[in-house]
C-alpha cells in the first residue's frame, strides 16, 4: 500500500519533510527506534506520544517536535503506528542501506566491538579488522582475519568502507584518522582516548569510556558523599586497559 493510499485514521507523513534536522534530534532518533523496535517485538501496533517518550527517556513535547521533522504527526486519540514510524526513522538515519565498517585496533575493545552481534541487525556490517601488531595479524576474530595496518587504504577501496572505527591506543589515533580520511572515509567513530582532528566534510564521533566513568563517579560521589572521582592517573590507566 502506498503512503497516499493509507487510511485517514492512520498517521501520515507530510509530502515533503523538512531537511536540516537538528543534531540534537538526530541524536535522539536511535532512542526512538530502539523503543519502537521493542514495542514491535511485543506486538504493539500503535503507541501514544507519552508512552513512546517515556520508553525513550524524553518528554512527549520534545518527541512530537522531533518527529515533526520527519513529517510524522501521529493521529489524535490513536498515536503513532509503530511499524510505519519505525520505517520512517530507519530510512531517515540511513539504516536501509548496508554500511561496511572497518575496525582499526584489535585489542580488548576492538575484539569486543568485532564480536558484538547487534551491528548487523542495524545495517552495519563489520567488513574488515586491522591492526599494526604483527602478533595479531592473521588472528581470526568474529569470522574475519585481522589484516595488517599497511593494507588499510587498499581495504577501504576494495571493500567500499563507509565508516571507520578507531580503537587504537591514543598515540596512534590521529595517524589512523588521517589515513582513513586520505583513503576516502568520511565517517569516523573514535574510541581512542585522544583528541583527533579531521577536515571539514568528515563526520567524527568520539566515545570516551574513561570520561563517561568519571561522570558516573561524580554522580556517585554526590549520592554517597564520598570522594569517588577517578584521579587523572587512574583515568589514564583505565583508558589504557580498555583499549588494550
Helix-strand category: alpha/beta
For the CA atoms, what is the radius of gyration?
A: 21 Å
CATH superfamily of the largest domain: NAD(P)-binding Rossmann-like Domain
CATH architecture of the largest domain, please?
3-Layer(aba) Sandwich
Q: Which regions are unreliable across 5 or more consecutive residues at pLDDT < 50?
A: 1-18
Count of β-strands: 9
Main attributes of the structure:
single chain; 244 residues; alpha/beta; Arc Repressor Mutant, subunit A; Rossmann fold; 2 domains; 7-stranded mixed beta sheet; two-stranded antiparallel ribbon; 9 helices; 9 strands; 43% helix; globular; NAD
Account of the protein in words:
By secondary structure, this protein is of the alpha/beta class. It folds into 2 domains: about 25-95, Orthogonal Bundle (Arc Repressor Mutant, subunit A); about 100-210, NAD(P)-binding Rossmann-like Domain (Rossmann fold), CATH 3.40.50.720. Helices cover about 45% and strands about 15% of the residues. The protein has helices at about 25-40, 50-55, 60-70, 80-90, 110-115, 150-160, 170-185, 210-225, 230-240, and strands at about 45, 80, 100-105, 125-130, 140, 145-150, 165, 185-190, 205. The strands form 2 sheets. A 7-stranded mixed sheet has the order 5-6-4-3-7-8-9. Helix 5 links the parallel strand 3 (about 100-105) and strand 4. It starts with about 20 loop residues before the first helix and ends with a helix. InterPro entries: CoA-bd, NAD(P)-bd_dom_sf, Rex_actinobacterial-type, Rex_DNA-bd_C_dom, Tscrpt_rep_Rex, WH-like_DNA-bd_sf, WH_DNA-bd_sf.
